[in-house]
């Protein structure tokens, strides 16, 4: 007796359909699972056996062979339990085959027969819709997540016992683009601004706030350097408050990533707030970039369409920092293994903060004097390679303020967010049908087409390039920043003053003794 069910797995952050074939034959009672199952899949035999018996049905005393196809792809996790149980019940005649024909089955079974939630339901259901399926059965706890995909019927099941009467429906199919309320009752479209931090909390540091505005408007990477207590971390943590909420396409992509990682937390709608990830400096390369025997997303993927903030940058390992170079250029991470490679999206805005030396007071005015030896400062600086720093557009010095003062009411997040939104709308109109969203994505011929310089601006940039021996990457990043500064000024053409301001953020006037990548606007 033979039955075939459909289940799914996750490869990277995308779903993939898996055929679960079950064959019952005469012989000694035995269950064999083939198709490159991992230990969690092989252990499903005992879970399925107990779940069927405790669900009021009979586990057949036959030779049972379960094949997970395609057989050349490694299967991991417990999401196949429900499909395996359904296949055994269908092959033994306890469940009508036509009831589950063309239905995707996802879920883990407990020994009592309860159907438990699994991570990655959202990309699995999305794949089912793309493959033409019109119905899925998921754990009752995952119904809200599955209903984010429109055009497919979602049925929720709490236990195998429900199959005696048939699984109950979970309500109408939801719209993936609707602003469904979260479990807390707050509309998802407004959650991006529902926090208790504001740019106005930062005292002074107008130059740093201006750099933050440019970074948000054009999605430019940002480096902030200064002595302890000047507000570097405080400023960078307010960067998400300047960014617009995720649109429908971005929200679905981010929600899929968090679904795969099991971080949705029972929410009822798509994620609308741009991610903000701030890993500790002890993080491994695999934790930051992604990896493992079966590759899993890292922090750069969890920050997709959002902000990755690395506080105290030189404290991170050299290997972890150098691993950032490829995703910063390609906006994706490709992890190769013996059985193939897995790609993860990693289109994030990098913000980093650091001190100028181990004690933090090298080269700055104030009562504190740097106590670091020359060797200690050299070791500290050597942790940042030139190629990595060259990929950071804005490099800003934040000196210590002369007095505590009061929070500024001029630079608020709401005001800055309006300026950023206006600049983004200009970019959308300019790059319509070009496959580009942000000025930071310009390259090649498109840069020559969309980042046109006024004659005096072109002369200024050419002179700076020749005099200071810039790399081609530094030249292009200055040009991209100039394009963003022009957008903030509502100027279609890049003028000389826009280029001049962009040049200030590329460390062009640093003395030879400065650490590589540090701005020295005060010549200290």
Quick rundown:
The protein is α/β, with parallel strands linked by helices and 524 residues long. The protein is 32% helix and 16% strand. The chain is elongated and about 85 Å long.
Verbal overview:
It is a single chain. Helix 2 (44-54) crosses helix 3. The model is unreliable at 167-194 and 508-524 (pLDDT under 50). Strand 6 and strand 7 (115-116) form a beta hairpin. The strands form 6 sheets. A 5-stranded parallel β-sheet has the order 11-14-17-10-18. With 524 residues, it is of the alpha/beta class. The protein is built from 19 helices and 18 strands. The termini are far apart. The chain has helices spanning 39-42, 44-54, 81-91, 121-130, 143-146, 206-218, 232-236, 248-260, 285-289, 299-302, 318-322, 325-330, 374-382, 386-390, 413-430, 444-450, 455-468, 472-488, 496-503, and strands at residues 2-11, 14-25, 30-34, 63-69, 104-105, 108-109, 115-116, 135-139, 153-157, 222-225, 276-277, 290-291, 296-297, 307-310, 332-337, 340-345, 349-354, 394-397. Helix content is 32%, strand content 16%.
Secondary structure: elements and pairs:
Elements: E1 2-11, E2 14-25, E3 30-34, H1 39-42, H2 44-54, E4 63-69, H3 81-91, E5 104-105, E6 108-109, E7 115-116, H4 121-130, E8 135-139, H5 143-146, E9 153-157, H6 206-218, E10 222-225, H7 232-236, H8 248-260, E11 276-277, H9 285-289, E12 290-291, E13 296-297, H10 299-302, E14 307-310, H11 318-322, H12 325-330, E15 332-337, E16 340-345, E17 349-354, H13 374-382, H14 386-390, E18 394-397, H15 413-430, H16 444-450, H17 455-468, H18 472-488, H19 496-503
Parallel strand pairs: 3-4, 5-8, 8-9, 10-17, 10-18, 11-14, 14-17
Antiparallel strand pairs: 1-2, 2-4, 6-7, 12-13, 15-16
Helix pairs in contact: 2-3, 6-15, 6-18, 17-19, 18-19
